Amino acid sequence: MLAGLLLLTGAVGATACWIWLRRDRRYESSESVAAAYDAWTDDRLLERLWGDHVHLGHYGSPPRRTDFRAAKAAFVHELVRWSGLDQLPPGSRVLDVGCGIGGSARILAKDYGLDVLGISISPAQIRRATELTQEGLSCRFAVMDALDLQLPDHSFDAVWSVEAGPHMPDKQRYADELLRVLKPGGHLAVADWNRRDPQDGAMNRTERWVMRQLLNQWAHPEFASIPGFQSNLSTSVHNQGEIATADWTRETLPSWIDSIVEGVRRPGAVFSLGPKAVLQGLRETPTLLLMHWAFATGLMQFGVFRLRR
Fold first, then answer.
1. Following DSSP, what letter does each residue of 64-87 receive, concatenated?
2. Other Cβ atoms within 10 Å of 23 Cβ, number
3. Contact 190, 178 (CB under 8 A)
4. Once rounded to an integer, what is the mean pLDDT over residues 227-253?
5. Quick check: 5 pLDDT over 80?
6. Which residues pair with 305 in a beta bridge?
7. Residue predicted with more confidence, 262 or 160
8. Residue 83 has pLDDT above 60, yes or no
9. Cα separation of 291 and 144, whole Å?
10. What does the pLDDT look like over 33-49, one tens digit per residue?
11. Are strands 242-247 and 300-308 parallel, antiparallel or unpaired?
12. List of domains in the chain
């Protein structure tokens, strides 16, 4: 029995690696990012497993065991408090850059009374975000490129962006656009996957290979470091104050393994979508494991950024 289980586990692992090595989602342009997110949205696998939020969860300080979906919602509330968005009066306008299927936008609108515009480069995400948003809730969604926001200067009381930066080929332009649309005295809240800063040590051979996989598998042109993106924000011609940062790697680290374990906890969510969804889940598993390794060893960090007035 045990031997059979080990053979099955080995076969599943080998299949996952074979699928993973044969295909990647190398960044080519904004269209390649949109296509990747369209596919992830349309197959519904991530939504069935993870709910409204594609981003990581916050497990507290120190981290404690909790439901994966609850940790994702907790992340939104933690970032709201840390960045000061909870100080905004009801009706304040917020731009959610890289809104996914609208999970954060709905929390900002429902729990904090904010008027939210969520944008994504993925038409499928915007369509699904709109479908999931109940009538009467003060949030709406639009397809838009974060590097070319079709929005007036100083038009939002707050700008919110979670895990969108790795998809931006021009980090300075990304920072400039976030700050350009922010009103003087407004609040900025950014959370991103960041690489170790080069000044803190060059990558060794293993780390270089892992980094290449993390970039190629999920349509990332490059990761910024925490000091690097802080500098992008601080030196922007649109900056109006001091940029504060923090490292939430420890608080978010359990998310990577939970992302995989959810498939075991909710097998019906996968199998109900058919064999293609099972293969897709297997295809994502090696990258999730590499992400966990990278964040656990310091190759990657989870950076949060806010504008301090």
1. ----HHHHHHHHHHHHHHHHTGGG
2. 11
3. yes
4. 97
5. no
6. 190, 245
7. 160
8. yes
9. 28
10. 999 898 888 888 888 88
11. antiparallel
12. 25-308 (3.40.50.150)
- Average pLDDT value for residue range 15-27: 60
Adjacent-strand bridge partners of 304: 191, 246
Per-residue tokens: 226: 């925490």
Q: At what angle do helices 275-297 and 205-217 cross, to 10 degrees?
A: 140
Q: Which conformational region is residue 23 in: left (phi greater than 0), alpha (psi within -120 to 50 degrees), or beta?
A: beta
The full DSSP string for 141-203 is EEE--TTS--S-TT-EEEEEEES-GGG-S-HHHHHHHHHHTEEEEEEEEEEEEEEPPGGG---
Least confident of 71-75, 118-122, 281-285: 281-285
What lies within 8 Å, CB to CB, of 238 at 6+ separation is 176, 179, 180, 182
| DSSP state letters, 7-26 | HHHHHHHHHHHHHHHH----
Helix axes 68-83, 103-112, angle to 10 degrees: 60
Token digits for 195?
């690489």
Q: Which two tokens stand for residue 51?
A: 């709910």
91/102 Cα distance (integer angstroms):
18
Is residue 59 within 8 Å of 252, Cβ to Cβ?
Answer: yes
List the end-to-end C-alpha distance of the chain, in Å, as a whole number: 63
